[in-house]
Amino acid sequence: MSDPRPRRLTSIPREVDDNAISRYVRFAPDSGQILLFDQRMLLMHGFTLAALRQELIERLGLERTRELFTRLGYQQGMEDARHLHASEQGELERILAYGPRLREMEGFVRNQAVDHVQFNLETGDFWSDYYWESSWEAEVHLKQSGISGSPACWMMTGYATGFTTALMGRPILWREIECVAMGHARCRVIGQPLEECDDAEAHLRFLQVEDFVSVPKRREARSAPGPGDAEVNRSLPDLIGASSSFNTVAYLIKRVAPTDATVLLTGESGVGKERFSKALHAIGPRTGKPFVSINCAAIPHELVEAELFGVEKGAFTGATVSRPGRFERASGGTLFLDEISSLPLHAQGKLLRVLQEGELERVGDTQLRQVDVRIIAATNRDLRSEVEAGRFREDLFFRLNVFPVKIPPLRERREDIPLLVDAFVKRYAARFAKHIAGLTQNASEKLRAYDWPGNIRELENIIERAVILAEDHGSIDVEHLFSGGEQVPNTVAQAAPPAATHGPAPAAGASPAAAPSRLIDGILDAGLSLGEVESLLIDAALARSGGNLSAAARLLKLRRGQLQYRSDKRSAS
Ligand SMILES: [Zn+2]
């Protein structure tokens, strides 16, 4: 095997100033607190945590407990890195050296470097190799469970992964290759970029919501993509996260999925409500049956009933054929009602009756048809205040609000950003047949600092655009990400990267029309069709305007109706 250690790496300092770290720790007995960078810490008996760990193993099993502790560690590592980064003005060499020392001070382990952490921010390279001696987790595991078939330092590998991932801005995976709990003389861990680990999936699943990412269809779709699999393949990878707020949602979705209960998803525009609803459908008993979605805001009021409940020939001008509505098309499966608050009052009344009776009449018809669908509704508005304002029926609200799940905005789960970015970069690099080395440190920091008003949809759009704009075999840099200045509505022309290095340069004083030639080159090189370019533009405009169609239309210099038409045409095709 060739030496995986990359060249031109910076090594972290071997000696760490303990006093420098100690100043972040504050014992404040008068307020009943211990603080590490203003985070509350607990000095508790190790044996109580060991007892909890053992009880969880007995109740949940080894694998689940391992997931739990790995994610716990990941979150701690992320938080410590974030605070250190802010306190040390981003001096990465020193911060990376503080990590292992902090763990020693916290009493978890003694680090003995085989190879100290070495890294290169520009290329994203990372390598390190440590012995862990006197590991708390390995000791308690060995004592309570005996010799183990797999490594047991879960919280610590999770911590190291979270800590270095936060600092490098790309997933750095730590794997334990020897562990005292397995009978080795000492534990040994290796940290390296995720994509360099051949068994990454096996380790990564301890950070993820396993049921979501390992839906069998997705794995099949990956090896042999067929037209039918594409949707499943696309719909699941975004459900990646290790943050506590993400896991809360994932837990609720997994609990409610096997039931037939109506679910109400709330949250800002772009947080992934439709993707969560697809995942819910995919892991529930109706999987294999249709998943039909309808965006209540995208359909003209006078047509919404026909769209939902179907129409009989001759019911109104233009109804030249009888056709089933979305309810009938979703028969046996799930109907996703997006932006439910936009449903006009007359349709709300009819929807309520259908939900109560389990049967419907098509528009212009008298025949009653049985329907069996599970309802998932979603809204980015507060339905209670819509009820108070008289815009939403209270009885329908109670009917839908059986199992509400609030999906957090991306800015409240920033620790998931590196995992999401990694997934999106892989997806679009594959789609545009490009090799992307990763993100520069500067780019990663900008992503972390940004406020994400358009949430995950905006992140995905930005990464998609960045993959198109970045050089093949190059890294994604800031100008590829926020190429238009995300706060200010901007023209497409300004989205061109300022410092590209190939292709003819526009002449000085060139007309505005000549300026985006680099962008055009980028689009042509990416092999995008005209339709795909239009689709990308529409998505980007919608994301930038927080899903507001009128604002998006202004960005694109279109009338609202024109944008509506193009957007509908796209979802119909
Ligand atoms: Zn170990």
Describe this structure in words.
The protein has 573 residues and is an alpha/beta fold. The protein has 25 helices and 17 strands. Strand 2 and strand 3 form a beta hairpin. The longest helix has 26 residues, at 62-87. Bound molecules: zinc ion. Residues 132, 135, 138, 151-153, 176, 179-181, 187 line the site of zinc ion.
What does this entry show, briefly?
This protein has 573 residues and is an alpha/beta fold.
- What spatial order of strands do you see in the largest sheet? 1-5-6-8-7
The number of E-state strands comes to: 17
Which structural class do you get from the secondary structure elements? alpha/beta
Rg (CA only):
27 Å
How much of the sequence lies in strands comes to 5-15%
Mean pLDDT: 82
Low-confidence stretches: 209-237, 488-515
How far the N terminus sits from the C terminus, by CA atoms, comes to: 49 Å
Q: What is the overall number of helices?
A: 25
How does the major sheet shape up?
5 strands, antiparallel
Overall body shape: globular
Helix content: 40-55%
Which ions and ligands are bound to the chains? zinc ion
